[in-house]
Sequence to fold (439 residues):
Amino acid sequence: MMMQVQRMDGTVVSVAWGTLAVLATVLALGACRSAAPSMDAGGSASAGAARWWKGNTHTHSYWSDGNDYPEMIADWYKRHGYHFVATTDHNPPPAERWVTIPAAGANRDLYDAYRARFGASWVEERRSGDTLRVRARRLDEYRGLLEEAGRFLLVPGEEITQYLGGKGAHMNGINLAEPIAPQEGATLVEILQRDLNVIRAQRERTGHPMIGVLNHPNFLWSQTAEDLLALADLRFFELYNGHPLVNNQGDSLHAGTERIWDIVLTGRFARGGGPLYGVATDDAHDYLRVATEQRNPGRGWIMVRAPELSAGALIAALERGDFYASTGVTLARLERAGRTLNVDVEAEQGVAYTIQFVGTRSGYDTASTPVHDSAGTALTGRYSPDIGAILAEVRGPRATYTMRGDELYVRARVVSSKPAANPSYPGEVQMACTQPARP
Fold:
């Protein structure tokens, strides 16, 4: 997303919330090491030895509208240095999925690569005359091929997908024990609340740790900041999504997802509510060709600090905000000591970094102006620049911020000068965002 940023010298520049190139994802592998205590929304330091785990929580396969086999997709993430991935195809899958393979072309090339990678004996296929069909394997069938203790984990997921009035309500259920059917409601907010309710009910009934993540609020301009404020128990949303059509950056009429985040954080904390955490994901569908207009893997991910690579440990870390979102920037240190926040970047030679501490102070200007599109639909309102203001900025790979005590929250944003080789839109640079910390 393009953002207007005021530097310390008063000049205003545009920066882009960037992506990591598909061919450059391996650059972030140095993050798997022990780390210091984290910044969290409650203001306390997380305890215990832990390390960083890199993962993606939104991708699609032949089970819905992706164009590759799920085990090939999982293998791509494993080969590119990820530690966990959740395949989140749309809605409950059918009992079986058979894919028709053409005699030639890109999809035939994928089939050939699939056979070469896993062997002819693994590929279950049917031939009838000139027609070749291949069965898509289920997670319980292929996870044993790829999972490795302490190295790579496959997490079950589903994108609970609903539409109403030409707009979408998409909620990722992460680590579900059972599929969840699409929910119905009179409004998109009501539908999303029912998604959250069903996820919570399944967790309580099964004892299985799981979370719900609101996907790409700006896809079809479907959710506003005010919508997210109405979802009081929503804890996760996609701050960044690598799909080229999800409008992360907003436009002259619509707020970008980072602006939405600051409005929601301010409104929640001002009312004594809980945090909203921001994740970065791929939303990958396209594995045939690498291009800006393609929905490719490797553009956005989360780095989660947990003592072990297990679904339970990862979800516990996510729920306490012990993670950050990245599109290419790796943090060497992310810690809190009292009211002091420390952020160090694992700097690359020749790359410039700017670390901005973003937040809202108590006593901020609460005025807002309603905004509507040409059809009269309510959009995210216009709010004071006091909300999500840059409280401090440091040019360089290391920065410290000491809270005065009047902040409702503070989060760090790291902007690099390194462009993405495979951006989801022109002009992106690699970035990272930490979760909100409170005094």
